[in-house]
Design goal:
alpha+beta; binds zinc ion; two-stranded antiparallel sheet; 6 strands; 4 domains; flat; four-stranded antiparallel beta sheet; 58% helix
Length: 320
């Protein structure tokens, strides 16, 4: 016959410590030992679950912490894990949490966490709400199209031009983009810009057509040159076409015409400027001399007053 196996079941023991201090020390030490379960029953009592054959060792261990060991007759009460990570009888929970520093600390942290969660949820809600509303706006954008039926020689109203201007500015001056949104062709928008019907986007972040390779067509180039002759300013052309200044400078070399003057005309001009300079000198000198005259008068007055004061002093003294 085979050996009868001794049943070595888990048993619950209650460790009764002399006081709170020993109870704590015992629990700390017990946690690093190979017990099945450690449950805090109250400030002095700890329940340890271990196999029966370990009882002797447990008793000796408890003794080190001035604690006694008895079998727990009643079942272990319901437990929970405290903030300081101890398994604990529910009955003892509130007493412990209100006196355990780690639990108090962690409870406060929990409160902060809870508030943070509320705040995050609120922010997420706000963002979702904004997204939901912005979707509505997107639908509106689809309706920026003007002259949907494509009527030839369509007459644009003031409001429609205003709308195009607003969208052009929203697009940071990108005419192509604005054309796509409004169905107004780019020649029309550029014409309005030239005539001042709508204002160009002036922001520093203005859209600049990128110049990858030979991106500009002959027509675009010619149009820019024509525009330059009309407006006389490369900067203005850039504002309308979105083509960057350096590219435009490459295409447009403004001819500078100097007025050719005859020697006689030059002499006349020279004389004129010299006369002007003389006049200015004269005025300056006059002003200077007037100022000097005034200064002289002032010092004369001062002298006069001083003498007067002195005479008054003397008179006063004589009377006294
Ligand atoms: Zn605690």
């Amino acid at each position: 016959m085979g050996q009868t196996r001794v049943k070595d079941e888990n048993t619950n023991y209650v460790i009764n410590s002399k006081n709170k201090f020993y109870a704590n020390e015992f629990r700390k030490a017990a946690q690093s030992r190979d017990f099945n379960k450690i449950v805090v029953l109250d400030s002095r009592k700890t329940c340890v679950t271990t196999i029966k054959s370990n009882l002797h060792n447990l008793r000796a261990f408890a003794n080190e912490f001035r604690s006694t060991c008895k079998q727990l007759k009643i079942a272990i009460p319901d437990t929970y894990i405290s903030h300081c990570n101890q398994t604990m009888s529910i009955d003892y929970r509130y007493v412990h949490e209100n006196s355990c520093e780690r639990c108090i600390e962690n409870k406060t942290a929990g409160e902060v966490k809870r508030k943070a969660v509320v705040k995050i949820n609120q922010e997420a809600h706000d963002i979702n709400e904004r997204n939901r509303l912005s979707e509505v706006t997107t639908t509106e954008i689809a309706d920026y199209r003007i002259n949907k039926s494509g009527t030839h020689n369509y007459r644009y109203s003031k409001d429609e031009k205003k709308l195009v201007e607003r969208l052009l500015h929203e697009n940071k001056g990108n005419v192509t983009e604005t054309c796509a949104m409004t169905l107004v062709d780019d020649n029309t928008i550029k014409r309005w810009l030239r005539r001042g019907d709508i204002k160009p986007y002036e922001g520093e972040d203005a859209y600049v057509k990128s110049n990858r390779g030979n991106e500009y067509s002959k027509e675009e180039k010619q149009e820019a040159i024509d525009l330059f002759h009309e407006l006389g300013s490369i900067h203005e052309v850039k504002k309308i076409t979105g083509i960057p200044d350096p590219t435009l400078h490459g295409w447009i070399r403004p001819e500078v015409k100097y007025e050719r003057l005859s020697i006689k005309e030059l002499n006349e001009k020279y004389e004129y400027y010299m006369n002007q300079a003389d006049m200015i000198d004269k005025i300056k000198t006059e002003k200077e001399s007037k100022r000097n005259q005034n200064l002289e008068k002032i010092s004369e007055l001062e002298d006069f007053l001083k003498t007067g004061m002195k005479q008054l002093e003397q008179l006063k003294q004589e009377i006294e």
